[in-house]
Amino acid sequence: MSERLDLPEDPKILVVALRRLGDVLLTTPLIRSLRRARPRAEIDMLVFSDTAAILEGNPDLSRVIEVAASASFADQIALLRRLWQRYDLAITTQAGDRPSFLAIAAGRTRCGMVEDRLIGRIKRAFLNRAVPMGRETHRVEEILSLARAIGIEPAAEVVCPRAVPRPDLFPGKPYAVIHAAPQFTYKQWHAQGWRALAQHLAGRGLAVVATGGPGERERLYLDTVWDGADVLRLDGRLRWGELTALLRGAKAYAGPDTSVTHLASASGCPTLALYGPTDPRLWGPWPAAGLSAPWNTAEAVQRRGNVWLVQNPLPCMPCQHEGCLRRLDSYSRCLDEMLPDQVVAVMDEALAAA
Hints:
By secondary structure, the protein is of the alpha/beta class. The chain folds into two domains: about 10-150, Rossmann fold; about 175-354, Glycogen Phosphorylase B (Rossmann fold), CATH 3.40.50.2000. Helix content is about 35%, strand content about 20%. The protein has helices at about 20-25, 30-35, 75-85, 95-105, 120-125, 140-150, 190-205, 215-225, 240-250, 260-265, 280-285, 335, 340-354, and strands at about 10-15, 40-50, 65, 85-90, 105-115, 130, 175-180, 205-210, 230-235, 250-255, 270-275, 300-305, 305-310. The protein has a seven-stranded mixed β-sheet, with helices on both faces. The chain has a six-stranded parallel β-sheet with strand order 3-2-1-4-5-6, sandwiched between helices. Helix 7 runs parallel beside helix 13.
């Protein structure tokens, strides 16, 4: 761990995380580390507008600053004026040009990720502390390397949004949650698998709650998945805090590689994560009690804490590509050939353990 930065007792700190929902959630261990090290600090986080909701009620943050993913030139100038040299410390959690530039502009002291190439060496010249990007390590560990770089003790805890129960929507009996729709097609499991799992859960006396996002494309996909199935559909009806409460009360959860699966894992819910092309060593779910040992590259079933990671370990996986066609709307053979019986057996194991 590096020498601790010389900052005021009540510093103003900005953390820049211009990434997707799951990435933003996995940045919360850094925020928790900062809060524990600097209880009196003003800690702000800069994120894209469509990811801010996953930070609702985060007790470690003072405020969340939102920016459009495709902000106009005028909006970007306005943001720069708002941030310019306002913070004692600015940290960028990624090596991209836009987040790096914003952190450099905002902080009198600056820390961030840098690429191992010319542009990274240029950025390093503007940073007080730099962490190399692209090492073969889990994203949470990579994020916590920023805490070590500024000399504070890392807290390896993913922080969920504040739970907001909805007794008017949640089942009045024991239930399991299935989130069938990832953001991208190449991470999808097949509809017959999800229906078989739902039928098995119902046979065990559990209500099955199906969650999903509000988008029309996702709703149409779930219409196909759940056609004729006995499930309570809450897709598009829950805020992140309500989803957190739902997951914490569930007997089990199952879902693909998506932000909701990371949330389920962090909530402490017994979680089945169905992984295909994604490398779990880098992006596997982070259990509520922390990752006791790294995820293996490919294995039929692995367990860490409250998480069971299920794969169909073909020789080519994890390829880290966007499916077999290497595009977002591709199929993935490793997921298409994953058998429902395998997932059902792991679900029974998770229910027994819970």
